[in-house]
Design goal:
disordered C terminus, 42 helices, alpha+beta, disordered N terminus, about 950 residues, four-stranded mixed β-sheet, globular, eight-stranded antiparallel β-sheet, about 10% strand
Length: about 950
């Protein structure tokens, strides 16, 4: 083991002397203690407080020597293992207590963990060589060294990280060395350690390092633990001379390619819902990549060495260390919370991590959201450091200009007044941007217009002069250029993302800076607010360019008719800009848009349009997803708010881009269908076409279409069927669906079936339409919803009808609860039919089944969503509309339906939406007399009962359903 510990003045040389006992090929006699142990020690640049409280090398050595007196070899091994296990457990407990309970630093935690492992491995190596496999005069070939590599070699060992060891040989393997290595490894594995190891000679190590970048990197970070110092020194010296010399460019290129590949594998975004603090973009590995390249090129041992070489400024080195310490702290907390080497900030761990790390709730932001914002800001900082540093080294070490004459001795050409360095646009220097700071904004516009990359030197220059941006906020030219970037024919996402990464965007628009790295803890929004906004602007550009026609056909078609594109782009930039302020972000964001519009150069009309779009950017989706579009009052109220066809078109395009940018899979064919239906109905109303077609006329049209579709039926049978259904039924479905319903009902009656089920898969809307015809009775909706949940389905819409003969015809649009998409697999359809039959007969223990499924979704439990019940008697002329907001769970609709039945309410239709962990379910209901619920006491009872249901994890089961019972029709109006 290297002599790394230095005792403070006045302390006994105990710790240093004890470490010297781990010398190869012999155990020194114990040195009697003379004084109290050293209070602190310096180990690889880290101060370790009271190291002997973690592990006492002398005491461990005595214990191991005592083990050698215990009977045979097997008994000795048992005692050795027990001694090491006890030392490991004691040391880990001390380290954990210091970090978790005493708020120690992560730097100390990882250093103490590495120090503990050094002592254990050194003691084991010394014992194995000197006592178990002794040789009085070992040959050169029998001498070897044990070195730590990787993170452990750096002296950074997270609590449950792997232990990577190199057994370094002078020549090829020999039997004695193999015995020693095998004995040590099996003991370490029996301790429960995950040990990665290699056994190589110096020549083999160097040969592999020349061809394998991973091995090359690991050899850069070796550290001698035990053994022959000269052998280790030879490896280090020859590595520099024979591997690193003259290969800096190739190593840099390989590490950058490795980084890019890792980023793609991990999602290629810093702002994912569940980031990996080690391997993810903006994580520890990015910082390590930066340092590895610097160390390889400049032969430095720490970040301060890069400052001395002029690669980083002192401030950038400070930012590096601060970011590394934060990420290490998260990693250590994750390890301790899970009891394993866990590096992912998973959704269920984030709240607990926020708690133990001391993040509390503040106005407008939960503790967990503050933690994640801090993480994303650090990830952004890491991105800034690694991008500038790595790109600068890449340009310096390997790239040659792809165009331009600078390499022939000519001066660099200018593009729109800015120098072109190779194929990268740049800035002339600090003097230029100090005299003309608007060139900072111009740089991003020129890069966008000319499809050029930005030189890393320019980005570094901007970062070091970021204070200049504040002075550009009221500069007309800077704002004009920014509006050009935002609304240009070229994609605005790329330059805006570059501006955001460089810290320019948030300083140029301080309101946007407030949402940088701000996450929304709801399992629905995949990205932070700023990332979501930039993605949305990119999608809007693709809509306008026609590149999104396949996935967003209506938005693409409508975009061609809009005349306020500048207002639309500004509105999309501002639509979430006020999130996290504690109020309605739509209202607050509209005020921001009203302020920014004139600053950017919008006309008063454009500013008003942008402001309106921000204020009502949720109107279309809320109406389409939460209200019954077939209710004429719904469309009437929506049109009254929109007022004009142009606003309707702009709102549709903005909404499509907004939802599509929430995350993968958030835009679905079902949502597209709902929005298109509302758009077309509103368009008709705004054009005046709908007013000429009354409700009664639409009902008569639907009946006439059905008469034609049922031409093979006797006339009397057709008229009898037409007389069963209410007016609401004829307005709810198209002619083909109503014809299918009619044949289902007649077939069931002819066969005398008490229950008939029809399942149709609509692949265009990615739903399965489940139609049930059975005797109506209280609680039917609840039972059906529970059966669908138990079968693995999730309901996105329900339409509930009772015919005049007391038979129910209920239609559910169902998707797969886990995978999304249509509930289309044959086994799933069979499962749901069986579940419905068992539920209606009372055979199914609904409570137990739902509880089992509830427990299979532990991630939902981590999200705290306050239940909210809204009762609206203005949204519909004929129904009371109840909107429920709460944490989603399997069987929630079963519980709600049961509660509504208990309240004496009839469900006419339901709109079901899920946004991550949040369920937003809307029910159109009437009382037992078929009227709205308007009595204050009854409304209060509804609110209280449903709030309790939203907070109840599992609903109680209903009694077995009666075979057949008639009651007042649920949708008999």
């Amino acid at each position: 083991m290297p002599d790394e510990i230095a005792s403070p003045a006045g302390a006994r040389p105990g710790l240093r002397g004890r470490l010297r006992r781990f010398l190869p090929y012999g155990a020194a006699a114990a040195v009697p203690a003379a004084a109290a142990p050293a209070a602190t020690a310096t180990w690889h640049g880290e101060r370790i407080e009271a190291p002997l409280d973690i592990v006492d090398p002398a005491a461990l050595e005595r214990r191991l020597n005592e083990a050698m007196t215990q009977g045979d070899a097997q008994a000795q091994r048992v005692e050795i293992l027990a001694a090491l296990r006890e030392a490991l457990a004691t040391g880990r407990a001390v380290i954990r207590r210091r970090f978790v309970e005493e708020a120690g630093t992560a730097d100390a935690c990882v250093a103490e963990s590495a120090w503990l492992m050094d002592v254990l491995i050194g003691a084991l190596a010394s014992l194995t060589v000197s006592r178990l496999f002794p040789v009085s005069n070992p040959t050169v070939g029998e001498r070897f060294a044990v070195a730590a590599v990787g993170g452990y070699g750096r002296g950074e060992l997270a609590p449950f990280s792997d232990i990577d060891l190199l057994f370094l040989l002078p020549y090829k393997r020999n039997p004695r060395v193999e015995q020693v290595v095998e004995y040590m490894l099996y003991l370490l594995w029996d301790l429960g350690l995950k040990v990665g190891h290699s056994v190589r000679s110096v020549d083999d190590s160097l040969r592999l390092a020349r061809t394998d970048t991973t091995i090359c990197t690991s050899l850069m970070e070796t550290r001698l633990l035990w053994g022959e110092p000269s052998l280790y020194d030879t490896l280090r010296r020859r590595f520099v001379e024979e591997v690193a010399a003259g290969t800096g460019a190739a190593f840099t290129e390989a590490k950058l390619a490795e980084r890019d590949s890792r980023h793609r594998r991990m999602g290629d975004s810093r702002y994912v819902l569940e980031p990996n603090v080690k391997e993810g973009k903006g994580g520890l590995r990015d910082l390590q990549t930066l340092f590895w390249i610097g160390k390889y090129l400049y032969q430095v041992d720490d970040v301060d060495g890069l400052v001395a070489k002029g690669v980083l400024t002192a401030e950038e080195a400070r930012r590096f260390r601060r970011s590394e310490s934060f990420l290490l702290a998260l990693r250590c907390h994750l390890h301790y919370l899970t009891g394993r080497a866990e590096d992912r900030l998973t959704f269920d761990l984030q709240p607990e991590l926020a708690r133990v790390a001391g993040y509390t709730d503040h106005a407008g932001a939960k503790g967990v959201e503050r933690l994640m914002k801090h993480y994303f800001l650090v990830a952004k900082e890491v991105g800034s450091l690694t991008r500038i540093f790595c790109a600068a080294l890449e340009a310096e070490s390997q790239r040659r200009p792809k165009r331009g004459l600078a390499f022939l001795g000519f001066s660099a050409p200018l593009v729109d007044g800015l120098p072109l360095d190779g194929d990268r646009i740049s800035l002339a220097g600090e003097k230029q941007i100090r005299e003309h700071p608007v060139d900072i904004i111009r740089l991003f516009r020129v890069a966008q217009a000319r499809d050029l990359d930005i030189h890393p030197a320019a980005l570094k220059l901007i970062t070091r002069n970021i204070d200049l941006i504040a002075g550009l906020r009221d500069d007309p030219e800077a704002n004009r250029i920014f509006l050009e970037i935002l609304t240009a024919e070229q994609d605005p996402e790329i330059p805006l993302r570059r501006m955001n990464e460089a810290g320019v965007l948030g300083r140029f628009i301080p309101d946007f800076g407030r949402v940088v790295a701000q996450m929304q803890y709801d399992m629905y929004h995949t990205y932070t607010v700023d990332e979501h906004t930039l993605f949305a602007l990119g999608i809007l550009h693709r809509i306008e360019a026609g590149d999104a026609a396949e996935t967003l056909p209506l938005a693409t078609q409508v975009m061609r008719k809009t005349g306020s594109r500048r207002a639309l782009y500004v509105a999309l930039l501002c639509h979430d800009i006020a999130k996290g302020r504690g109020g309605d972000h739509s209202v607050l964001g509209a005020r921001v848009a009203r302020k920014l519009g004139p600053r950017f150069g919008l006309t008063p009309e454009e500013t008003e349009t942008a402001q309106w779009l921000v204020r009502w950017h949720l109107l279309l989706s809320d109406t389409a997803f939460k209200r019954d579009i077939e209710d004429d009052k719904t469309v009437q109220d929506f049109v009254a708010a929109v007022e004009s066809p142009e606003r309707l078109r702009l709102l549709l395009v903005l909404t499509a881009a907004d939802i599509s940018a929430v995350g993968p899979g958030r835009w679905t064919a079902w949502k597209a269908t709902l929005m298109a239906e509302l758009y077309h109905r509103a368009e008709e109303r705004l054009s005046g076409a709908d007013e000429a077609v009354g409700v009664e006329h639409r009902v008569d049209q639907a009946k006439d279409l059905l008469r034609q579709a049922l031409a093979d039926w006797p006339t009397a049978a057709v008229e009898a069927y037409l007389g069963k259904a209410s007016r609401a039924y004829w307005l709810a479905f198209d002619g083909a669906t109503q014809a299918r319903h009619a044949r289902l009902v007649r077939g069931a009656e002819a066969e005398g079936e008490a229950l008939a089920i029809d399942i149709q898969v609509d692949r265009q809307r990615t739903v399965a339409e489940l139609t049930i015809h059975t005797a109506d009775h209280p609680g039917l909706f609840s039972r059906l919803a529970g059966a669908i949940a138990v079968s693995g389905g999730t309901i996105v819409e329900a339409k509930i009808f009772t015919f005049a003969d007391g038979m129910a015809l209920d239609t559910f649009l169902v998707q797969d609860a886990v995978e999304g998409g249509a509930f289309d697999a044959p086994e799933k359809r069979a499962r749901v039919q069986v579940a419905i039959e068992r539920s209606l007969s009372g055979e199914m223990k609904m409570s137990a089944e739902l509880e089992r499924r509830h427990r299979s979704y532990p991630r939902l439990h981590s999200v705290s969503i306050a239940p909210r019940v809204l009762v609206d008697n203005e949204a519909s002329r004929t129904h009371t509309v109840i909107e429920l907001n709460g944490r989603d769970r399997p069987g929630l609709l079963h519980a709600v339906g049961r509660a509504l039945t208990g309240l004496g309410l009839q469900i006419s239709s339901a709109k079901i939406s899920t946004f991550g962990a949040r369920a937003v379910d809307v029910f159109y209901v009437k009382d037992v007399f078929g009227l709205k619920v308007e009595h204050d006491a009854k409304l209060a009872q509804i609110r209280k009962t449903l709030a309790e249901v939203l907070a109840d994890p599992v609903a109680k089961p209903l009694a077995a359903a009666p075979k057949r019972r008639r009651r007042a029709g649920r949708s008999a109006a």
